[in-house]
Every structure is written in structure tokens, then in C-alpha cells.
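Researcher: Next entry in the queue.
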Amino acid sequence: MADDPVPTARLRADAPSLASASAPPAAPLYSPGQVAAATFFGTPLAGAWLFATNERRCGHPGRAAVSLVVGTAATALLVMLALAVSTSIPRLAGRIAILPVLAMGQLARVLQGKAYAKHLGNSGRRAPISSVIAATGVGLALGVGVAYATGYAYLSATAPARIEIGGSEFLYADGVTEREAQAVGDALQAIGMLSPKRPLTVVVRRDHGRVVVGFTMPAGPASHPEIRQAYRNLAVELSHRAFDDAPVDVAMLDPQGTARVTLAWEGRPQKVDDGLGQPIEFRPPATEAEARAVGVVLRQANVRTADHPASLVVRRDAGRPVVELEVDDAVLDDTATQTRLHATVNDLSALAFSGAPVDLWLDDHGGAVRVKLTWETRPQP
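Model: Structure for this entry, 381 residues:
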């Protein structure tokens, strides 16, 4: 027995060892580009879903949870920002959507780029397109839900209140009170603008503290100079009757409530005393100094006297200074009187407008322009 050989085992060279046995393949990770694409095609929450999946697969469940919370908040903030901007700068709303795409892609590169590169270096796999599509779909569904809830809450909170006055609809928001909206309605009713047969939609709001009264109207009237001037005059009435002479802008709105034109308070007709106790109206960009000088010229020419008051307006037409003078009906057919009045444009040009060409328009007592005496046809001195 002692001479029996001791049993031995031969180790075959091709037998696998424990040390060389391959580990189970790691779960695939999403690349920064895939995170950005999910954000683009889904929402920030869709991108955050892929970002959180990477964190969870790398053993960071706490960071994964934080990623989803941040993605949810970013989606809600994006919706509110887009809704807010769409009413004031519509063209900017679409551009805002690209910001979270860039941000999510950059965050994935900075916070997960090294881990993703190491994962690939260890023969790890990138998540397949089908997985990206599926994960993006889940994130998109959740993102749409968050966006809908956020949008509904935002619009409910910012929707204007409504009252009806004289058959017309008055909407008020942005710090305007019902009492102020009622005062606007009462002012419009007092000057005869409200009628059940012609209902208006009027929006009263505040913009940087200033009251803006908007009127919905077609595009044609909003571009007509005379209609714009009428609404500038209306701003003065509303300021006096409803807001204790505080500045009021008037906006001409399209049917969706977006301003086609906003007529600033600074462009309203203004008045200055001519020294005879009679007002001269000047419409910016005409200035008070020009209006006073016009008053002096016409007073010296005995065109406008204390015994013969007449409405007088200083304005611009296509950039040229214009003096509008109210005259009696007889003057409208009196060539000799018109020639005498026409001759005043030489002094008006020299003394009120620094030598610039000036037209003289003659109005009837209703304020309608009846005769236009141009600079080119003036009597030569």
C-alpha cells in the first residue's frame, strides 16, 4: 500500500479559472446625446427620466430621485414661462423650448460623462434606440401631465375677471380692480361709445404700473391714422374720467387679445395757452415750443384774436409740420381770405419750424379738414 502512487489531478490549460470568469454584463447607460434627444422630443421630465435611470444603474438612487424632482419642476417652469412670454413676445416662446435641451445635454456630459466613458471602456453598452424611445415615451407621458396641470393652474390664476357694462364685455387683470374696470365702462358709456347694438370687448390691465385699456378691432381700423388719433383723444378722456388724470395707454387688439398697436400716453394730444386764454392743441411729435410759436405768428397776423377764437392744432403729416385752423364756412369759399391765410406759412416756417416746409389746413366747425393749403403753392413774399 505504501508503494501505491498518490493520486494527482492534472490541471488542463483550457479549463476556465474563477479569476478569469467573466462578470455579468452591466446594465446599459444612456449617453448625454440620448438624454438631450429625450428632452427635445419629450419634455425636460423625459430627459430627467433617462438621467435618473443612469444614476440608479450607477448605484445612486438618491440622486436619481432628485433628478426626477428637478425635471418635474423644470417642466412646470418651462410651461409657465412659455405661457407668460407668448402674450408679450410670441416669437420668443418657441425659442425658450431649446434651452432645456441644451441644459440637459450639458448636465449629462458634466455630471455623468466620466461614468459613461468608463462604462464603455469596461465593455459596457449604450442603451439601444428602442430603450430610448420607450423611456422617452414614459417621460413624455408624465411631462404632458405635468404641463397640463401647470398650464391649467397658471391660466386659472392669470385669467382676467369679467363684468358686463352697457352690453359690452370688460375684462380686467394684472392688478386692475373691478371698481377701475367699472369706471372705464362708465366713462365709455358717458361719451356714447357703448351700445347693445355694437358690443365691444374691452381689456383693462396694468403694464409696469401703467393702466392700459385695450379695444378689440379688425386690422384695418387699427392702421388708420385718423382712427388712431381718435383713440389718443379717448386716452385723455379715460385718464380724466376714470383714473384721476393718471397716464393711460390705449391698445388696439386682435381677436386673440394681442396688441396690434399700443398708443402711449406720451403721444396724446396736449394743450398750451396761446397768451389770449385760448388753447392750442399740439400732437407729438409736435412740441409745446412749436405750438407757442404758431400762436404768436397767428396772433400777430390777426388770424386768431381774443374776439375771434378758433380751434388750432399743430401736428405732423408724413413728417411735415401742419397747422390746422378752424374757420367759418364763408372762408371755405373765399379765395382772397384763403390767400391771406396761406401767406402766413412763410412766417410759420421761419419762426416756428426752423425754416421747414409747413402746410396750412382749414377745418370746418365740426373739425373736418376742408381745404389743404400746401407749402409748394404758397404765395411768394
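Model: The longest strand covers residues 201-207.
Researcher: Noted, moving on.
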